[in-house]
Amino acid sequence: xxxxxxxxxxxxxxxxxxxxxxxxxxxxxxxxxxxxxxxxxxxxxxxxxxxxxxxxxxxxxxxxxxxxxxxxxxxxxxxxxxxxxxxxxxxxxxxxxxxxxxxxxxxxxxxxxxxxxxxxxxxxxxxxxxxxxxxxxxxxxxxxxxxxxxxxxxxxxxxxxxxxxxxxxxxxxxxxxxxxxxxxxxxxxxxxxxxxxxxxxxxxxxxxxxxxxxxxxxxxxxxxxxxxxxxxxxxxxxxxxxxxxxxxxxxxxxxxxxxxxxxxxxxxxxxxxxxxxxxx
Length: 280
Prior knowledge:
- This is 2-oxoacid:ferredoxin oxidoreductase subunit beta.
- By secondary structure, the chain is an alpha/beta fold.
- The chain has 12 helices and 8 strands.
- It has one domain (2-279): Rossmann fold (3-Layer(aba) Sandwich).
């Protein structure tokens, strides 16, 4: 308990930003806890960290932490983060986004940030819905589910955020859940330490907009679903397609070393400067 209290006072803006705006039982608080524990383990100072977010429930997370923070426009968190990283590559830039923020209006930015292999950490909170803006369906809302913009049912098929990141070229891609909080701490820490574009998809829950509307119960029931449905990558490799039906994998999906955009960009700058010096 003493350690928890220490982290709270070290990293949270507890004197002016609380109580938070999240619904009771929301998984975002678990992600916040994992994030500050992971950062603490890396040994980074608060001045070395920049936390960038977009709009939505997840977009409020940087408001509560005592780092350099940037609350940006919907779907554009990665573009602002790219600018910060190019301006000062020594900063550890972490981007917090929701499933709609990152993969709908921000979808192209997400794909190309992965393709470029920017030295950023992207944490995407996937609750299968637009929570703060009214319960509209998102790119990860399951086929057949209900939403305010799909009152009869969703007829669009969802896609996997993590698998999209792997295909687009991210250096590291992982998936965790807010139920598996200890594992999530480790995934976020590894993603922060990874050089290149590192993505952690966090399967969380919105019992207010998604769970209630789809008769999935409250926070306890939705956390239990995560426990029963998630399969660790190592175990999944030994299971048949039939056994994996209806399940999803958690853990590290890919970890590879690729050329890092900021380093390659610096080489271009140095080459250009050398040529200009010769021309003089």
